Write a sequence for this structure.
């Protein structure tokens, strides 16, 4: 399952940078249970971002090896509720 972030009135990269102004080039899962890891990448000139729910999911998104060309953000669960329609309701504020 893919959990794409799709804000309505702002570019996804701008939305992400407002929530985490210091993205990382490597995936580091947040220590807090209130925060999700989000990966963004550029494809055909457009930025896409999706919620990563666990290390296995990260592997399916990025493949094996170092995930070049991606940025990783830490975003609070509550912020994802309005921009990620595919994320099941139990996942907001907890694990899916």
């Amino acid at each position: 399952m893919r959990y794409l972030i799709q804000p309505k009135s702002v570019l996804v990269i701008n939305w992400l940078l407002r929530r985490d102004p210091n993205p990382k080039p490597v995936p580091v899962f947040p220590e807090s249970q209130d925060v999700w890891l989000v990966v963004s990448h550029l494809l055909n000139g457009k930025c896409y971002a999706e919620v990563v729910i666990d290390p296995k999911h990260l592997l399916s998104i990025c493949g094996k090896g170092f995930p070049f060309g991606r940025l990783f953000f830490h975003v609070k669960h509550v912020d994802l509720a309005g921009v990620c329609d595919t994320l099941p309701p139990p996942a907001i504020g907890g694990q899916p």
Q: What stands out?
A: The chain has a mean pLDDT of 85. DSSP finds three helices and three strands in the chain.
